[in-house]
Structure formats: C-alpha cells, structure tokens
Amino acid sequence: MKYFCNPLNVNYRYQFNADPRRHGQLQICREAADPSMIFFHDRYYIFASMTLGVWVSDDLVCWENHRLPDSLPLYDYAPDVRVLGDWVYFCASNREHACDRWRTKDILNGPYEKIEGSFPYWDPNLFADDDGRVYFYWGCSNQTPIYGVELDPKTMQPIGEKKELVFGNPYAIGYERIGENNTTFPASEEEVEAKYRAFHEAQGIPESMVPEEVKPLIRGMFSNRPYIEGAWMDKHNGRYYLQYAAPGTQYNTYSDGVYVSEHPLGPFTLAENNPYSYKPGGFLPGAGHGSTMQDGQGNFWHTSTMRISVNHDFERRVGLWPAGFDEDGELFCNQRYGDWPMPVSGKPDDPWRNPSWMLLSVHKKASASSAVSGHEPEKVLEENVQTWWRAASDSRDEWLCVDLGKGFDVHAVQINFADDKLDIPCPGEIRPGSQARYIEEADHVTQWKLEGSVDGKSWFVIEDKTQAKTDLSHDLIVREDGFTARYLRLSSIAVPYGQNPAVSGLRIFGLGAGERPEVPRFTAKRTNDLDMLVQIEQQENTLGYNILFGSSPKKLYHSDMIFKAGEQRIGALIQGRDYYVRVDAFNENRITEGTCVKLN
Fold first, then answer.
1. Is 290 part of a structural domain of the chain?
2. Phi/psi at 408 (5° precision)
3. Which domain holds residue 560?
4. CB-based contact 306:325 (threshold 8 Å)
5. Which H or E element spans position 130?
6. Could you tell me if 230 and 244 are in contact, meaning their C-beta atoms sit under 8 angstroms apart?
7. Are the CB atoms for 354 and 342 separated by under 8 Å?
8. What is the per-residue pLDDT across 6-47, written as a single tens digit (0 to 9) for each?
9. What CATH number is associated with residue 543?
10. Is residue 394 part of a domain?
11. Inter-residue contact 586 to 592 (CB < 8 Å)
12. Taking every pair of C-alpha atoms in the chain, what is the biggest distance, in angstroms?
C-alpha cells in the first residue's frame, strides 16, 4: 500500500509579491493553488497557480515537478487544463486582455499550439460533453456571477451569448459568508459607500483620478460579499455538476459548492449536499477552488486549495481527497481526517474508509535546542499550521524533539516547515501588473535528519535527508511495518535562503494499545437559519473530535475536526434544510462513533 498526507508532498515555489495595495512592499511566501488535475495517457497531472510547471505522478503519491514552456501564461492564476480527445487544452486567467489557449499531445515535451483568444476572463474551465459539444465557464468576483457559454470545438470561439449561471447568496447559504468560520454577513450599500469614501481620503487619491473599471473593485473590498469563483464542470449519469468556490481563499472555510442541472448551461439548482468540499478544522484547513476527476481504477478524487495565509493571503497549498457520487447522484468528498495519511491501493476503493493510523503527537510535549519568543517548541504540536517553532539561529546544531509520553507503534511522520517573515532581496525581476511578482526560478533544498528513541538515550535513524537535493516543505515519511518510539528528534536542519529553521507541525501517526474513547456526549442546536452550536462534554482518554453533519444519518458528508471539548459554532448551513449531527471521538488508539441526532 502507498500513502500520502495533505498537503501534497511537492515543491512549493517561493513568490516575491509586490502587491500594489501595499505600495509595492515585498511579501514573500510559498504558494500553489487552484489545481486542475487530469488523467492522461495513464498518468496524473496537476497544474496549479504560480508553480512554473506541472506535477506528474503514476500513482497519486509520488509527484515530480516538470517545468513548462515560458510561452505559456505561467504568471496568470488558475490554470485550466482539460483533455479533449488526443489533445490537452491549457489556458489561465487575465482580466487585462483576451486570454489565449494552447493545446498539446505531449504535456512534458510539447509542442504547444496557440489558439487566439477573443475575450478576457478569470478562473476558466473548459468542458467537453459526450456529444462533442464544448462549453466554457468562468468568473471570480464578489460582484459578478459564474458565467457559461458554448464554444466552437474547432476555433474555441463563443457560440451565442454568455449566460449568468451561479450568483452568491450569503443570506441563505451559510458557507458563502466570509470570515473565519463563516461569521460575517455582507455590508449594506450605505456602509460600503462610507468605507469607500474613507479609503480615498486615507489614501489621498481623488475619486476623479480612479478609472471607472477600478471603482467597483475597490467597493467590493468593503462589501463583505463572498467571492464566487473557481468553476469546474463534471457530468455523471446524464446530470451536469457545476462546482464553484466560496467565500475567499484566505479563510478556513474556503470550500467548493455544487449546482446541478439537466443541461450544461442550466438552469442550475443548488445540490442537496453542500458545500461538498469543506474542511474548516484540523492542521491545515481549506478545501476550495479545485477539480474533480476519476482515476484509472474508477475512484473519484477532488483536489483543491488549502490555506496558510500568514505571510500573505495567497500563502496556500494543494490537497487531495477521495470523492464520488452516492446512490442519489449527490457529489461528495471525504475530508473527515483530511490531513492524515491516506492510502492509495491502486484498485477500486471505499472513499469513506477510516484512517489506518491515528494522530499521536497532539497534546504531547516538545523541547528544542533554542527558540525565539512566541515560537516555542510546543507550537509544533498544536495542530495549527499558522503557528510554529523557530530556532534562534540557522546552525545545523539546532534540534527539535517530541516526547509522546510512552512508546507507540509509529508508522508515519509528516514534517511541516514554515516561513517566518522572510526579509531578503528579490532574486529576480518583478513582473509588473495587478499581480506584480517574481516566482523563484532556482531550485532550493530542504535537509534534515529524523531519529527515534525509546528511552531518550539511545537513538536510531528513521530517515536521513542531510544530503537531499529536494525542497519538500511538507515531507512525509512512511514505515508501513512500523517501529516503536517514545521520542522523535529532528536535527541537522537546513532550509532555503539560510533561514533559521521553523516547523509548524512535527506530526506523528501510528497506533496505541490502549482503550478507545468513550462515546461522546454532546448537544446540537440550530441557533438561526445558517448556524448551529455543538456543545461537547469533556471526557478522559480523548484527543479530539470530529463533528459530522449532513442531510440524513447516512449522509454525514460534512465534518469539522476540533481538539478540545466545549462549544463549537458551525456556520455552513443552508436556509430551509434539515440536518443531522454526530460527534465522533478519537485518541491514539482508535475512533469511537457517537450517536446521530436531528438538528432542532
């Protein structure tokens, strides 16, 4: 069996962002997002924003990066890739001019043939129906909808007028509200106008000097309306599933919803199961703006964007989860344990299987050779990608150690490196424009050694990457047969740009030999049309909880993982719909399912 653990274990390139809203001040972070994933000639390909290339895999586990030609729009967001017959079609986003397309029969070697575009767009998605007709969807705004139009399959030019397909509706659709945990309703027109005028006064820019096409974008900054974006279309059993992302990439609730129709250009209705891709909790949250595809064994997978958003709003990663269609034709995605190790068997599989190994490291103890104030070693055990340990120097003598409290059967370790306010000169030329930036061309390396011990005195090497030539900031080490350890120590660390090493998660997975948690005791009530409140009683022998909810006891497709009992608000409900709720408890040993109740 092979395993992967989100975020995907690939090289995430550094971005040097000169955001005009910040007067050109550089913001530096790693970024990859908006993945389009296809299966072509028995291989898997992921095209993601700001990577300069494509990730290629034979098994969905081991990925290699290949550079794409500079003739492609590699600095444009949301690359869209689709297979049409023997060809792979590629395009990306640009609002400033008509967007061209390219096609090829060989992704890695080319050549790529250019097809002239006729209009600008953002967040594109091409879809070929099984009758040979071709459709195109696009949109990324908190002011305008997702659009669709039919295209001539030979020229890729529009046939007829575009249609408005999906509008945001945050007053009735809870998961479309912006903010952490979907907390914020849109502002009134009066509030937007007041903030708009205050902005101009603060910037000292007369409104008369602002181009007319820019004014709606500025007003949109203050509207608190969700971004409706990231279209992706699939067809299953004669029905069309138009997927979209909301409310914004910087929130833990970035998710993918889905509308359904009997026709590729609608009318569309909101599917019963929504949001179908939703991961607000756990170590690395977010599951919006992605793609859904079927592998060579008939399994469905959904890949989308996960958020860090500390050094920049667009500090993001890419995740992959099992997906599928149920007996009623509802599109679903399993993110219950969505950033734990997942198996890929290479055969038809159960998308709802429980994880093979449990999380051992949360709530345990950590120590280090040194630490910067505010970045103590315990941060690596908080299951929060936005906090981290940082060493006081860049010396390879620095080390980090986790004490599990007793010996466990360890099977996997995920090492997550962080970036702590990089302040270095840009190594290349900033490309101008609304997304002014430089994407790091150089290949860096991330090196380390991982050791284990039963007693803290005698150590054995688990993995030695002190001479590695790779740059894997979310590396995964798997030992399917397992080994016994109480202590795990990370040392001899070297990271890009000579930074002081910083680690957001030293996450350890395996199995304990103790008892499962007790059946969770909880209450759940609906506090308004869009929100529910779950109250979980504290109990011993429990490390965390998964709050599951959905349209029936057999369709608890949504989940929110938390690591302490008490009160948890969930704001992803849809007005007028019934819900059922179950809370599961987990510890180092296994998962205990709770009792399902109807939400009142």
1. yes
2. -130, 160
3. 522-598
4. no
5. none
6. yes
7. no
8. 999 999 999 999 876 565 579 999 999 999 999 999 999 999
9. 2.60.40.10
10. yes
11. yes
12. 74
